[in-house]
Amino acid sequence: MSDTASSEPVVQAGKGALLVLFLATVIDMIGFGIVIPFLTYLVEDLAASEGIAEVGLWVGLLMTSYSAAQFLFSPFWGSVSDRIGRRPVLMIGLVGNTVFFTMFGLANTLFIALAARFMAGVFNGNLAVARAYIGDVSSPSQLNTRMGLIGAAFGLGFTIGPFIGGELSNPAEKWDLFVDTIFETYPYLLPCVAAGGLSLISFVYAYFYLPESLPKAKRSKKDKLNWSVKLAKSFKNSYSMLNRGAISIIIWATFLFIFGFTIMHAVFILYTGMALEDGGLAYNEAQNGRIFAVIGIAGIVTQGVLIGPLSRRLGAKKLLPISCFVCGTGLVLIPYTQAEHATVQLVLVAIIVAVGSGLFQPSSSTLLTTFAKHEGINLGVVMGAQESISSFARILGPLTGGIVWTYTVSRGWPLDYHTAFHLCGVMMLLSAILSFKIKTIPDTSDEESKDFS
What is the pTM of this model? Predict the structure, then answer.
């Protein structure tokens, strides 16, 4: 069966499998966030040695290349996992992470750094495959809670990634142990090695404790195709998901949500670092880092603890627009923080944003899985399409935020430094409106469901 998927779980996976999926997702987000503290300095060093003046351009290219690669290759890995199984694809990704994280830390030219960053994104298609794995082994009543676990890993990775990147950069300047070693020659190698080491540990754990979730009888049976044909078919499959009733609505709602959320990534620190007399908070790097830590921790609590009870009480369909309204409210309130009460107000706003985001991700994934199983569509294709569109939103969001900020920050109301955050709210509102169009969730049986032991 090449184009259908069973509506029932097919394997009883142990807790070790759930831990592997958790670690794979954490590492995915560590890979995204680990470069944030030191990327500008890395580019400055390499640009100076090569006589390149366009530091800002190269910082932008390196930031977007990771998400661009995920956008291009997530559908590919999702389709491959439908054909050869989830386990080998997850393990390939973990090996790729180890190799290309290390390559990035050893980069001595901007081109090598760009190539390493892009390839790390190529092999970090694990999130879509991890969600498909959860869909394979979960009953309808378990989906939201288990998708919430993946979401908690997402938040944890985004929280500790920048921490690792900042704390382990330039180790020779902090600890004598690293003086006159390769870590002094390559001052940003240690955080990359740390991330690669985590990925390698996860690979070993996966080898022993991650069972395959997709039996051979349920895999797509296709003649072997070359890479370009596979990639073209992956794009075709993803495009087909954008015209597939409720599935397309969920995917487009996800795009709008992530687009609005990642606009904030570009403009948050621009706002908090702005001078008090200009309306900002005059924050430094440490203060900004603490706020992002609050967002990460609140997201972990939401997706690891709150999503289960809330989904049982309200259901994923109701939670989707609620999450959009909650997150949008928090994003719009950010630039209205008063400097004299900045810490308390910004922490509260950050929690609102994190709760909204934490509710959205597992709810959208649960709805996608439910409709895909009901319509007999391979989960790898559906999740790959969702992650591809999400990666595209993560590319456009920061770029849009930076452009809007540049053209509005020095203007007067209504087009001033508030505007980019208002745009975040508009995107959330559009996502909520779109989510109201989702039809009634199909009633799926859970008689043959198997629980994690």
Answer: 0.66
Q: What would the two tokens of residue 105 be?
A: 């830390």
State how far the Cα of 75 lies from the Cα of 370, in Å rounded to an integer: 19
Number of H helices and E strands in the chain, helices first, is: 17, 0
**Residue 376, phi-psi category: left (phi > 0), alpha (psi -120 to 50), beta (remainder):** left
pLDDT by residue, tens only, the chain of 453 residues: 344 444 444 455 556 677 777 877 787 777 767 777 677 678 778 988 887 765 556 766 787 788 788 777 877 787 788 888 888 888 888 888 889 989 999 999 999 999 998 998 888 766 778 778 887 777 777 676 777 777 677 767 777 777 777 778 888 888 889 998 999 999 889 989 988 888 888 888 888 878 887 777 777 665 455 555 655 666 676 666 666 677 888 889 999 999 999 888 777 777 877 778 888 887 755 566 677 777 778 877 887 788 888 888 888 888 889 999 999 999 999 999 888 888 899 999 989 998 998 888 888 888 888 877 777 777 777 777 777 777 788 888 877 877 787 778 777 777 888 898 999 999 999 999 998 888 766 555 443 333 333
Structural element, H or E, at residue 91: helix 86-105
Residues 6+ apart with CB under 8 A from 74: 125, 127, 128, 384, 387, 388, 391
Domains 10-216 and 231-437 share a fold: yes
231-437: CATH number: 1.20.1250.20
In 10 A of CB 47, how many CB atoms? Answer: 18
Q: Are 393 and 258 in contact (CB under 8 A)?
A: yes
Q: CATH for 10-216, among 1.10.540.10, 2.40.50.140, 3.40.50.620, 1.20.1250.20?
A: 1.20.1250.20
Question: Are residues 40 and 109 in contact, defined by beta-carbon separation less than 8 angstroms?
Answer: no
User: How do the domains of the chain map onto residue ranges?
Assistant: 10-216, 231-437
Residue 185 zone, left/alpha/beta (φ > 0; ψ -120 to 50; rest): alpha
From residue 92, alpha-carbon distances to 95, 96, 123, 178 in Å are: 5, 6, 7, 31
